[in-house]
Design a protein that fits this description.
The structure holds two protein chains of two kinds. Chain A is mainly beta. Helix content of chain A is 0%, strand content 59%. By secondary structure, chain B is an all-beta fold. In chain B, the strands form two sheets. In chain B, strands 2, 4, 5, 9, 10 and 11 form a six-stranded mixed β-sheet that branches. Chain B has a five-stranded antiparallel β-sheet with strand order 1-3-8-7-6, with no helix packed on it. The termini of chain B are far apart. Classes of the chains: A mainly beta, B mainly beta.
Chain lengths: 111, 112
Amino acid sequence: DADVTQTPRNRITKTGKRIMLECSQTKGHDRMYWYRQDPGLGLRLIYYSFDVKDINKGEISDGYSVSRQAQAKFSLSLESAIPNQTALYFCATGQGTDTQYFGPGTRLTVL
Amino acid sequence: KQEVTQIPAALSVPEGENLVLNCSFTDSAIYNLQWFRQDPGKGLTSLLLIQSSQREQTSGRLNASLDKSSGRSTLYIAASQPGDSATYLCAVRTGANSKLTFGKGITLSVRP
């Protein structure tokens, strides 16, 4: 089984809908991250969490919220999706400052 | 603000060639630097992690070097193979509790 899993893998939704992307890890890492990747813009950090009670905004947090339900679970919500949130979303985990391990990604399309 | 640049954006080489991928960063006070590989539509896979006190790291046919004073890192791939075709990203961590700043990546194509 994969160490970092993301659900769903693909999602098409409409403008204004609420969407939740989920991430689970089996590596026992303390830190979890949500990124989005857009062509020409690279990877940008949305939110990150250093432990269950520590949530921090990244560089592009507007329009997003997160929940760290347990050490192993970190979900990303779009309260009211808009077309420019169409992107590839990645969850990643890490222990301290060691390397980050990425999930397979969720391809989100907002119509 | 840390900025990471990878040039060129794309590179095509014949199989068997040794090649170097470049990464430059603007703030030399880094904590560590990582190289990742990304296959199309997939997640990132860590290749090498270099701490700020190190000059290089090696894994198989891959060798990454770090020169903090000049704000540069290189990823050397020996005897390239078609299976090496992917996008290679470097990422810099400025402090222990800071985020990773990613370059936009270099898309490598190795021709059989």
